[in-house]
Protein backbone atom coordinates (compact mmCIF):
# COMPACT_ATOMS: atom_id res chain seq x y z
CA UNK A 1 0.00 0.00 0.00
CA UNK A 2 1.29 3.45 -0.94
CA UNK A 3 2.18 5.71 1.97
CA UNK A 4 0.00 8.85 2.18
CA UNK A 5 1.46 12.20 1.35
CA UNK A 6 2.24 14.37 4.35
CA UNK A 7 0.79 17.87 4.39
CA UNK A 8 1.13 20.74 6.84
CA UNK A 9 -1.64 23.31 7.39
CA UNK A 10 -0.70 26.71 8.79
CA UNK A 11 -3.90 28.44 9.86
CA UNK A 12 -7.07 27.76 11.80
CA UNK A 13 -9.71 28.42 9.13
CA UNK A 14 -12.30 25.60 8.94
CA UNK A 15 -12.15 25.41 5.14
CA UNK A 16 -8.52 24.22 5.12
CA UNK A 17 -8.65 20.67 6.62
CA UNK A 18 -11.24 19.42 4.07
CA UNK A 19 -8.71 20.05 1.31
CA UNK A 20 -6.77 17.06 2.61
CA UNK A 21 -9.76 14.76 3.00
CA UNK A 22 -9.62 11.76 0.70
CA UNK A 23 -11.83 11.84 -2.36
CA UNK A 24 -12.53 9.00 -4.76
CA UNK A 25 -10.10 10.38 -7.33
CA UNK A 26 -7.69 12.16 -4.99
CA UNK A 27 -4.35 11.29 -3.46
CA UNK A 28 -4.16 9.94 0.07
CA UNK A 29 -3.06 12.57 2.57
CA UNK A 30 -2.12 12.76 6.22
CA UNK A 31 -2.24 16.36 7.47
CA UNK A 32 -0.92 18.20 10.51
CA UNK A 33 -2.57 21.51 11.40
CA UNK A 34 -1.27 24.39 13.48
CA UNK A 35 -2.35 28.03 13.78
CA UNK A 36 1.10 29.14 14.93
CA UNK A 37 3.86 29.85 12.43
CA UNK A 38 6.50 29.17 15.08
CA UNK A 39 5.11 25.70 15.74
CA UNK A 40 4.79 25.06 12.00
CA UNK A 41 8.44 25.98 11.43
CA UNK A 42 9.51 23.57 14.17
CA UNK A 43 7.46 20.83 12.48
CA UNK A 44 9.18 21.55 9.18
CA UNK A 45 12.61 21.36 10.78
CA UNK A 46 11.88 17.98 12.36
CA UNK A 47 10.56 16.02 9.37
CA UNK A 48 9.97 16.46 5.62
CA UNK A 49 6.56 17.42 4.28
CA UNK A 50 5.32 17.03 0.73
CA UNK A 51 3.23 20.20 0.80
CA UNK A 52 2.39 23.18 2.99
CA UNK A 53 -0.88 25.10 2.75
CA UNK A 54 -0.44 28.42 4.54
CA UNK A 55 -3.04 30.98 5.54
CA UNK A 56 -1.72 34.42 4.69
CA UNK A 57 -2.40 37.39 7.05
CA UNK A 58 -4.68 35.34 9.32
CA UNK A 59 -2.03 33.11 10.86
CA UNK A 60 -0.61 34.37 14.13
CA UNK A 61 2.95 35.49 13.67
CA UNK A 62 3.02 35.57 9.88
CA UNK A 63 4.17 38.53 7.88
CA UNK A 64 4.98 39.33 4.31
CA UNK A 65 7.81 36.79 4.36
CA UNK A 66 5.56 33.80 5.15
CA UNK A 67 6.64 31.67 2.19
CA UNK A 68 10.29 32.59 2.65
CA UNK A 69 10.17 31.55 6.32
CA UNK A 70 8.56 28.20 5.48
CA UNK A 71 11.07 27.45 2.72
CA UNK A 72 13.98 28.46 4.94
CA UNK A 73 12.83 25.94 7.56
CA UNK A 74 12.52 23.23 4.88
CA UNK A 75 14.25 24.16 1.61
CA UNK A 76 12.42 22.98 -1.49
CA UNK A 77 9.06 22.36 0.16
CA UNK A 78 6.12 23.44 -2.01
CA UNK A 79 3.80 26.07 -0.53
CA UNK A 80 0.25 26.96 -1.57
CA UNK A 81 -0.93 30.26 -0.10
CA UNK A 82 -4.58 30.90 0.84
CA UNK A 83 -5.53 34.55 1.34
CA UNK A 84 -8.74 36.25 2.47
CA UNK A 85 -7.62 39.82 1.74
CA UNK A 86 -5.22 39.54 -1.21
CA UNK A 87 -3.49 42.38 -2.98
CA UNK A 88 -1.49 42.41 -6.19
CA UNK A 89 1.62 43.03 -4.11
CA UNK A 90 0.90 39.88 -2.06
CA UNK A 91 0.50 37.76 -5.20
CA UNK A 92 3.72 39.06 -6.73
CA UNK A 93 5.62 38.61 -3.46
CA UNK A 94 4.43 35.00 -3.28
CA UNK A 95 5.88 34.40 -6.76
CA UNK A 96 9.15 36.06 -5.76
CA UNK A 97 9.40 33.84 -2.69
CA UNK A 98 8.77 30.77 -4.90
CA UNK A 99 5.34 29.81 -3.63
CA UNK A 100 3.93 26.97 -5.70
CA UNK A 101 0.51 28.62 -6.04
CA UNK A 102 -1.85 31.20 -4.58
CA UNK A 103 -5.63 31.20 -4.05
CA UNK A 104 -7.88 33.91 -2.67
CA UNK A 105 -11.21 33.32 -0.97
CA UNK A 106 -13.72 32.24 -1.98
CA UNK A 107 -11.78 29.47 -3.71
CA UNK A 108 -12.88 26.38 -5.59
CA UNK A 109 -11.78 23.36 -3.49
CA UNK A 110 -11.49 21.23 -6.64
CA UNK A 111 -9.09 23.76 -8.19
CA UNK A 112 -6.95 23.78 -5.04
CA UNK A 113 -6.89 19.97 -4.98
CA UNK A 114 -5.79 19.92 -8.63
CA UNK A 115 -2.93 22.24 -7.72
CA UNK A 116 -2.05 20.05 -4.73
CA UNK A 117 -1.87 17.06 -7.05
CA UNK A 118 0.36 19.01 -9.41
CA UNK A 119 2.59 20.05 -6.52
CA UNK A 120 3.39 16.52 -5.41
CA UNK A 121 3.86 15.23 -8.97
CA UNK A 122 5.85 18.20 -10.37
CA UNK A 123 9.63 18.01 -10.68
CA UNK A 124 11.57 19.69 -7.88
CA UNK A 125 12.31 22.92 -9.71
CA UNK A 126 12.39 25.83 -7.33
CA UNK A 127 13.00 28.22 -10.22
CA UNK A 128 10.12 27.29 -12.54
CA UNK A 129 8.87 30.87 -12.32
CA UNK A 130 11.43 33.69 -12.02
CA UNK A 131 10.26 37.25 -11.38
CA UNK A 132 12.45 39.73 -13.28
CA UNK A 133 10.43 42.90 -12.58
CA UNK A 134 8.02 43.06 -9.64
CA UNK A 135 6.36 46.39 -10.44
CA UNK A 136 2.60 45.62 -10.25
CA UNK A 137 1.88 47.82 -13.27
CA UNK A 138 4.74 46.27 -15.26
CA UNK A 139 5.36 42.69 -14.18
CA UNK A 140 7.97 40.68 -16.08
CA UNK A 141 9.03 37.09 -15.49
CA UNK A 142 10.21 33.99 -17.24
CA UNK A 143 8.90 30.45 -16.92
CA UNK A 144 10.19 27.02 -17.81
CA UNK A 145 8.65 25.41 -20.88
CA UNK A 146 6.34 22.84 -19.34
CA UNK A 147 2.57 22.69 -18.95
CA UNK A 148 2.36 22.48 -15.12
CA UNK A 149 4.36 25.70 -14.83
CA UNK A 150 2.00 27.38 -17.29
CA UNK A 151 -0.93 26.28 -15.10
CA UNK A 152 0.77 27.76 -12.05
CA UNK A 153 1.42 31.07 -13.79
CA UNK A 154 -2.16 31.34 -14.98
CA UNK A 155 -3.40 30.82 -11.40
CA UNK A 156 -1.09 33.56 -10.12
CA UNK A 157 -2.15 35.94 -12.89
CA UNK A 158 -5.79 35.10 -12.27
CA UNK A 159 -5.42 36.45 -8.73
CA UNK A 160 -4.18 39.85 -9.93
CA UNK A 161 -6.90 42.48 -9.83
CA UNK A 162 -8.08 44.32 -12.96
CA UNK A 163 -11.12 46.31 -14.04
CA UNK A 164 -12.66 43.73 -16.35
CA UNK A 165 -16.08 42.21 -15.81
CA UNK A 166 -16.14 38.43 -15.18
CA UNK A 167 -16.85 37.53 -18.82
CA UNK A 168 -14.05 39.73 -20.16
CA UNK A 169 -11.71 38.51 -17.43
CA UNK A 170 -12.41 34.91 -18.40
CA UNK A 171 -11.90 35.74 -22.07
CA UNK A 172 -8.50 37.36 -21.72
CA UNK A 173 -7.38 34.59 -19.35
CA UNK A 174 -8.30 32.06 -22.02
CA UNK A 175 -6.49 34.04 -24.71
CA UNK A 176 -3.40 34.37 -22.52
CA UNK A 177 -3.36 30.65 -21.82
CA UNK A 178 -3.65 29.74 -25.50
CA UNK A 179 -0.75 31.97 -26.50
CA UNK A 180 1.35 30.83 -23.55
CA UNK A 181 0.81 27.16 -24.40
CA UNK A 182 1.69 27.89 -28.03
CA UNK A 183 4.93 29.51 -26.88
CA UNK A 184 5.77 26.58 -24.59
CA UNK A 185 4.76 23.82 -26.98
CA UNK A 186 5.83 25.18 -30.36
CA UNK A 187 8.53 27.68 -29.39
CA UNK A 188 10.02 25.88 -26.40
CA UNK A 189 9.25 22.34 -27.62
CA UNK A 190 8.13 21.45 -24.08
CA UNK A 191 11.79 21.48 -23.05
CA UNK A 192 11.96 22.48 -19.34
CA UNK A 193 15.48 23.76 -19.92
CA UNK A 194 14.05 26.46 -22.20
CA UNK A 195 12.27 29.60 -21.02
CA UNK A 196 9.40 31.83 -22.14
CA UNK A 197 9.55 35.49 -21.13
CA UNK A 198 6.20 37.02 -20.12
CA UNK A 199 5.25 40.60 -19.28
CA UNK A 200 1.94 41.90 -17.94
CA UNK A 201 1.42 45.65 -18.31
CA UNK A 202 -1.55 47.45 -16.78
CA UNK A 203 -2.05 50.97 -18.08
CA UNK A 204 -4.93 53.32 -17.37
CA UNK A 205 -6.83 52.17 -20.44
CA UNK A 206 -5.56 48.70 -21.31
CA UNK A 207 -4.25 45.37 -20.11
CA UNK A 208 -1.34 44.10 -22.20
CA UNK A 209 0.47 40.75 -22.26
CA UNK A 210 3.75 40.24 -24.09
CA UNK A 211 5.30 36.82 -24.63
CA UNK A 212 8.63 35.85 -26.18
CA UNK A 213 9.52 32.20 -26.77
CA UNK A 214 12.93 30.67 -27.58
CA UNK A 215 11.82 29.19 -30.90
CA UNK A 216 12.59 30.00 -34.53
CA UNK A 217 9.21 31.68 -34.98
CA UNK A 218 6.78 31.05 -37.82
CA UNK A 219 5.50 32.49 -41.06
CA UNK A 220 1.87 32.73 -42.14
CA UNK A 221 2.50 30.08 -44.83
CA UNK A 222 3.47 27.53 -42.15
CA UNK A 223 0.11 27.63 -40.35
CA UNK A 224 -1.87 25.17 -42.47
CA UNK A 225 -2.40 23.10 -39.31
CA UNK A 226 -4.16 26.01 -37.54
CA UNK A 227 -7.79 27.10 -37.88
CA UNK A 228 -6.66 30.66 -38.59
CA UNK A 229 -5.46 29.51 -42.04
CA UNK A 230 -8.82 28.02 -43.06
CA UNK A 231 -10.98 29.63 -45.70
CA UNK A 232 -14.50 30.69 -44.77
CA UNK A 233 -15.88 27.77 -46.73
CA UNK A 234 -13.70 25.14 -45.01
CA UNK A 235 -13.62 25.97 -41.27
CA UNK A 236 -12.30 22.51 -40.32
CA UNK A 237 -9.79 21.96 -43.11
CA UNK A 238 -6.83 22.22 -40.73
CA UNK A 239 -8.05 19.18 -38.78
CA UNK A 240 -7.43 16.97 -41.81
CA UNK A 241 -3.84 18.22 -41.96
CA UNK A 242 -3.32 17.65 -38.24
CA UNK A 243 -4.67 14.11 -38.48
CA UNK A 244 -2.55 13.34 -41.54
CA UNK A 245 0.63 14.57 -39.85
CA UNK A 246 -0.09 12.91 -36.51
CA UNK A 247 -0.70 16.14 -34.57
CA UNK A 248 -3.12 16.27 -31.66
CA UNK A 249 -6.63 17.63 -32.22
CA UNK A 250 -6.88 21.38 -31.85
CA UNK A 251 -5.36 24.29 -33.70
CA UNK A 252 -8.07 26.80 -32.78
CA UNK A 253 -6.01 28.82 -30.29
CA UNK A 254 -4.85 31.66 -32.54
CA UNK A 255 -8.29 32.08 -34.10
CA UNK A 256 -10.00 32.06 -30.71
CA UNK A 257 -7.50 34.54 -29.28
CA UNK A 258 -8.28 37.07 -32.03
CA UNK A 259 -11.92 36.98 -30.95
CA UNK A 260 -11.22 37.34 -27.21
CA UNK A 261 -8.91 40.37 -27.16
CA UNK A 262 -8.86 43.67 -29.03
CA UNK A 263 -5.44 43.36 -30.65
CA UNK A 264 -3.02 40.53 -31.39
CA UNK A 265 0.37 41.70 -32.68
CA UNK A 266 3.28 39.45 -33.75
CA UNK A 267 6.87 40.46 -34.37
CA UNK A 268 8.46 39.79 -37.76
CA UNK A 269 10.17 36.59 -36.66
CA UNK A 270 6.98 35.18 -35.15
CA UNK A 271 8.36 34.27 -31.73
CA UNK A 272 6.87 37.26 -29.88
CA UNK A 273 3.23 38.21 -29.46
CA UNK A 274 1.40 41.08 -27.77
CA UNK A 275 -2.21 40.78 -26.58
CA UNK A 276 -4.12 44.00 -25.90
CA UNK A 277 -7.44 44.33 -24.08
CA UNK A 278 -8.90 47.84 -23.88
CA UNK A 279 -10.51 48.72 -20.58
CA UNK A 280 -12.86 51.46 -21.79
What are the salient characteristics of this protein?
6-stranded antiparallel sheet; 5-stranded parallel sheet; 8 helices; Heat Shock Protein 90; alpha/beta; Rossmann fold; 280 residues; 2 domains
Describe the fold and architecture.
It is a single chain. This protein has 2 domains: 1-124, 3-Layer(aba) Sandwich (Rossmann fold); 127-280, Histidine kinase-like ATPase, C-terminal domain (Heat Shock Protein 90, 2-Layer Sandwich). Helix content is 32%, strand content 24%. It has 8 helices and 11 strands. α3 (88-96) links the parallel β4 and β5 (101-104). The model has no long low-confidence stretch (mean pLDDT 85).
What is shown here, in short?
With 280 residues, the protein is of the alpha/beta class.
CATH topology of the largest domain: Heat Shock Protein 90
Pairing-aware structural class of the strands and helices? alpha/beta
Summarize model confidence as the mean pLDDT: 85
Number of domains: 2
Q: Based on CA inertia axes, which overall geometry fits?
A: globular
CATH class designation of the largest domain: Alpha Beta
Radius of gyration: 20 Å
Q: Which sequence of SSEs, written as H and E, runs from N to C?
A: EEHEHEHEHEEHHEEHHEE
> What portion of residues belong to β-strands?
15-25%
| SS field, number of helical segments | 8
CATH architecture descriptor of the largest domain = 2-Layer Sandwich
The CATH superfamily of the largest domain is identified as: Histidine kinase-like ATPase, C-terminal domain
Strand order of the largest sheet: 6-7-8-9-11-10
User: What are the segments in which pLDDT stays under 50 over at least 5 consecutive residues?
Assistant: none
Which percent range fits the helix content? 25-40%
- In total, how many beta strands? 11
Q: Give the termini separation.
A: 57 Å
The major β-sheet equals: 6 strands, antiparallel
Amino acid sequence: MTEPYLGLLIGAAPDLPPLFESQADDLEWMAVQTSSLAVALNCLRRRPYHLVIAEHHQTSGTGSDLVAAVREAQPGVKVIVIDSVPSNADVIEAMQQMAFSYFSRPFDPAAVRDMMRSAVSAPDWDDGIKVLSAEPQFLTLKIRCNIPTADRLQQFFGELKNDLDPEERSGIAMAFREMLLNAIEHGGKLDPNEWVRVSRVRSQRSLVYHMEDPGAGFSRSSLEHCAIANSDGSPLEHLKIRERTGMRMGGFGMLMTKKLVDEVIYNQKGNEVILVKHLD
